[in-house]
Write a structure and sequence with these properties.
Layout (H helix, E strand, L loop, with lengths): L4 H31 L9 H12 L7 H16 L7 H8 L6 H28 L3 H19 L9 H7 L11 H27 L4
Helix pairs in contact: 1-2, 1-3, 4-5, 7-8
Length: 208
């Protein structure tokens, strides 16, 4: 059924709103990546424009679902600005709880190589042509295997990365007590107090 003039006008206004929002996100992304020192995640202006344009290039006869999905993608890009960019570095430094000049130098060496390792892993996963959910399943399995090796270490550094990995293996493994504190802190930090309370409610419901 052909669209009425009123429907066409509503769709036009919605698209203009989406384009204006996309323009704001693009400007923010160009500024954000322009200041980034991470050469492995930094995007060029052209890459950002192409990414934004591919999101708002809706198919002919687009539906509300198409529109809302594009909006969600733009919001996801914008959410990156609020991420803590130092989480991996914190975990690496946390791996040396009693810093000495040599351990600090070692941490810096690892930090300088780590982004490249991350990029290489992502590239390998991309070549597998697995979807994102399956890629995460693969990474989780790698973390489980590493966690099983980690529990045999004489000293396990107190880091969020280690706590996350340890949370993926069974309760029969001997895990340090600080694991639960780290996981709880992360629940609040990454999800907010309200969501953390919902998680606690779900945990309490296990015994009910």
């Amino acid at each position: 059924m052909p669209l009425t003039n009123n429907e066409k006008q509503i769709r036009y206004k919605k698209m203009e709103k989406l384009k204006n929002y996309a323009k704001d996100v693009m400007i923010q992304m160009i500024m954000y990546h322009g200041m980034s020192v991470d050469i492995f995640t930094r995007k060029s202006d052209d890459e950002i424009r192409d990414e934004i344009n591919s999101i708002i290039n809706l198919p002919n006869g687009w539906t509300d679902d198409d529109y809302n999905f594009a909006l969600k993608k733009l919001q996801s890009l914008q959410n990156e600005f609020y991420d803590n960019p130092h989480l991996m570095n914190n975990d690496i430094y946390g791996g040396h709880p009693n810093p000495t000049p040599s351990s600090v130098n070692e941490s810096r060496r690892v930090i300088s190589k780590a982004p490249e390792v991350v990029q290489n892993i992502k590239s390998i996963l991309k070549l597998t042509e697995l979807n994102k959910s399956d890629q995460i399943a693969v990474i989780a399995e790698v973390m489980r295997r590493l966690a099983k090796e980690l529990v045999n270490e004489s000293q396990i550094p107190i880091t969020l990365a280690n706590a996350t990995a340890l949370s993926l293996i069974g309760h029969q493994y001997d895990k340090p007590e600080w694991t639960w504190k780290k996981l709880a802190e992360n629940l609040v930090t990454q999800n907010g107090k309200d969501k953390a309370k919902l998680i606690i409610k779900e945990i309490k419901g296990v015994d009910e």
